[in-house]
C-alpha cells in the first residue's frame, strides 16, 4: 500500500484531461442493448460477466465513470449507485442519464473510502474503475465492507500478461517479450501526463481477496475476437488473439 493517497488527487486531475475523449464514446456504450466488455467490446452473451439475475440487487459501481455499466444494470432491474472521483466524468454520466431517460444516484468521491453504510450492497462492480486506478489494499477491503454477506464482487482490468509485455513508452503495443518484472509489481506510472495505476500479480490478488473476506469464484481471461479492432494503442488484436489482454475477477463475500 502506498503511504499517501496522492494517487487519488493525481488521478482526479488526469481524468479531468481524459473526460472529453471518453464523453465521445459514452453514448455508444449507453445505447448498447447488450453489455459489451473491455477493449474488444466482447458481448455479455459470450463472457457471462454478470449474474443471470440482477433485478432487485443493490449495486455499487466503483469508479463508475460515464455510467454505462450502471445503466446496463439499471435496465436489467438492478438499483445501481455510482461513485467516481472525477467531476468531469460524472458530468458526462449526468448528461447520459438525461439523454437516455434513466436515473440512478451518482456520487463524487473516492472508491477507496466511500460514504456508504456497511453491508448495503449485493453486488460491487468495477470496469476499469477502482479495479486499476485505486490502491488494491484500500479498495478491495472497502468493497468487502460495502457488501452484504454472500454479496458478489466483479471487476475487470488489464491482464497480468499484458502488463508484463507492455513497453514503458506510452503508445507502444505489447510485444511477445516480457519487459517488466512481475515480482513487486504494484503501482505504475507512465510518461507524463499520466495517472497512477495499480496492477498486482494473480497470487497477490488471491491472497488479498481472501484476507479481505472473499472466496474467488472465477477468473475470466478475455481474448480479442477474430477481426476485432481497438482505439487503444497499448495492445493489438494479433497479440490479444494469442494471449488474454484483460481479465475479469469474480469473488463472493463469505456468509
Ligand atoms: C475507464 S473509467 C471507468 C469506465 C466506467 N466503467 C464507465 O461505465 O464509464 C475510469 C474511472 O475511474 C475513476 N477513478 C479513478 N480513481 C478513482 C477513485 N479513487 N475513486 C473513484 N473513481 C476513480 C476515474 O475518474 C474514471 O472515471
Description:
The chain is α/β, with parallel strands linked by helices and 255 residues long. It is built from nine helices and eleven strands. The chain has helices spanning 6-31, 44-47, 68-75, 87-100, 130-133, 136-146, 160-165, 202-211, 237-240; strands at residues 36-37, 42-43, 58-62, 79-84, 106-108, 121-127, 147-158, 187-189, 196-198, 214-222, 246-253. The strands form three sheets. The protein has a seven-stranded mixed β-sheet, with helices on both faces. Strands 1-2 form a two-stranded antiparallel ribbon. Helix 3 (68-75) links the parallel strand 3 and strand 4 (79-84). Helix 1 (6-31) packs across helix 3 (68-75) and helix 1 (6-31) packs parallel to helix 4 (87-100). It is globular and about 45 Å long. The two termini are 27 Å apart. The relative contact order is 0.16. The model has no long low-confidence stretch (mean pLDDT 95). The chain binds S-adenosylmethionine. Residues 8, 11, 15, 63-69, 83-86, 89, 110-112, 127-130, 133-134 line the site of S-adenosylmethionine.
How are the SSEs ordered, and which strands pair?
Elements: H1 6-31, E1 36-37, E2 42-43, H2 44-47, E3 58-62, H3 68-75, E4 79-84, H4 87-100, E5 106-108, E6 121-127, H5 130-133, H6 136-146, E7 147-158, H7 160-165, E8 187-189, E9 196-198, H8 202-211, E10 214-222, H9 237-240, E11 246-253
Parallel strand pairs: 3-4, 3-6, 4-5, 6-7
Antiparallel strand pairs: 1-2, 7-11, 8-9, 10-11
Helix pairs in contact: 1-3, 1-4
Bound molecules: S-adenosylmethionine (SAM).
S-adenosylmethionine binds next to helix 1, helix 3, strand 4 and helix 5.
